[in-house]
Amino acid sequence: MAVDGRAERAEIDEKVSAGARIAPDAHVLARSVYNGEVSELRAAGAHEVVPQELEATVEILVRVLRRFLVPDDEIGRHVARVRGAADGSDKAAAVGRLPPAQIGDYMPGLAVAVHRIAEGSQAAGRTIAQLGLRKSTGCTLVAVRRGSANLTALELDTQLLVDDVVVVIGPTERLADAAAAFHAPAAASDVAHPARAEAQQEAQP
Q1: Are 128 and 157 in contact (CB under 8 A)?
Q2: Cα–Cα distance for residue pair 109/127, rounded to 1 Å
Q3: SS3 call for 119
Q4: Which residues pair with residue 118 across a beta bridge?
Q5: What's the Cα-to-Cα distance from 43 to each of 12, 37, 143, rounded to whole Å?
Q6: Which spans in the chain are helix H?
Q7: Cα–Cα distance, 77 to 66 (Å, whole number)
Q8: Which of 6, 12, 32, 153 could share a disulfide with 37, CB 3.0–4.6 Å?
Q9: Which of the 8 DSSP states describes residue 34?
Q10: Residue 3: its pLDDT value, please?
């Protein structure tokens, strides 16, 4: 049973009490705005309370620590201390994963790109080792989506097929070079030199 703590206090107490009467075995989860309301909601019968003020504090803490590249396990310990001080909880604090698209925010100069392997491209039919992407561009192929399957445990002998969708991470200025390996020759040239391709298109009658 969930109770929205943004409602009036009397309404919250009534809902919690009603829930306890109707379903004594129900687990009551309530949401509050401020940390100071936690004890009152628990006294009213709530088993767990999620205060928005605390969650906002935790989110800010996580973002700041990530900005300084603090490891996730250390961030988890800091979050556990904050939660423990607020509600006495000493359970392990899970830290949400960093969205790949935001990696450049925390590691400037690094970025992620996604490509579909085209027929006739350098990558089509080759293994990761044969492609040698990291050696030639400094970028790393980290995952492959093949149909509905995600291949994340890649090996050097993993073969790349036409229509595979690949995820590449590397220096921002080298991603265009890496992209060329996954497109057909004519398209690869446009990907590697977008300004030149745009100029050619403008010059066409």
Answers
A1: yes
A2: 27
A3: coil
A4: none
A5: 12, 10, 49
A6: 9-22, 38-44, 52-67, 72-87, 103-106, 128-131, 133-137, 175-179, 185-192, 194-203
A7: 13
A8: 32
A9: S
A10: 47
* Spacing of C-alpha 104 from chain mean position: 13
Domains and CATH numbers, the chain: 2-87 (no CATH), 103-203 (3.30.70.1450)
Of 174, 204, 170, the C-alpha closest to 192 is: 174
Burial of 50 (0-12, 13-18, 19+ CB in 10 A): middle
Separation of alpha carbons 148 and 38, rounded Å: 44
Residues 6+ positions from 146 with CB-CB distance below 8 Å: 161, 164, 165
* Beta pairing partners, 48: 29
Residues paired with 167 in a beta bridge: 114, 143
- The first and second tokens of residue 198, run together, are 């745009």
First CA to last CA across the chain, in angstroms? 67
- pLDDT tier at 89, thresholds 50, 70, 90: low
